[in-house]
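ok trying again, last paste got cut off:
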Amino acid sequence: LEIIERSCWWLHIVGIFAFLNYLPWSKHLHILLAFPNAYYARLLPMGEMINMKEIQNEVLYAMHPELAPTSTDASTEATKNPIAIGFGAKDATDLSWKNLLDAYSCTECGRCSAACPANITGKLLSPRKIMMDTRDRLEEIGRNINTNGDPKANGFKEDGKTLLHNYITAEELRACTTCNACVQECPVSINPLDIILQLRRYLIMEESNAPQEWNTMFSNTENNFAPWKFSPDERDKWTTEV
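nice, full thing came through this time. structure:
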């Protein structure tokens, strides 16, 4: 009995240490990352989008041209901040650290896809696939860095791939209804919708890649301050009609 007890004890210990070494190379990494991912979950209401300060300023300047900076102020600001501002995300490196933590915290349980109305109706969108594609792209970027060294150094060779288009298609992104069902269902507080929104922002604002119906809505919103093709002055015209 003593030999059996000692054997089982050591077998248990060796098994635990072996599994801990296996964790970083498997999908079971979420066992370690689920707690910090839930701790750092956003506390904003699910339907609230994070506005971009640059876009807010453009709208402000359009409504109040007198507040727009002069050419001298713009050149001074460009000198202080030489890094070009991008809208949305094209690759995994453009996403936030929380988005990347989400990708590695995914348990691949599929609850998000099971609750997604787009997925239920046969659309290409699968929130589970969005998270797995993000993680796969990160792994590929890591292998490329191991092969070619520091991405900021001269001579670094890009692999020519991006998360958008190569992993996640525009059709998948357009199928999303932003209903937050995937966010609600996730047991470890993962937010696939945030990644979808960032990729869609790049698709629309950087590539101008949108269906004609969307472009019509954007144009009406820009010119008439509403999705419909009616002048703001005629918005209450219906009240005088018999």
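cool. The mean pLDDT is 87. The longest helix spans residues 127-148.
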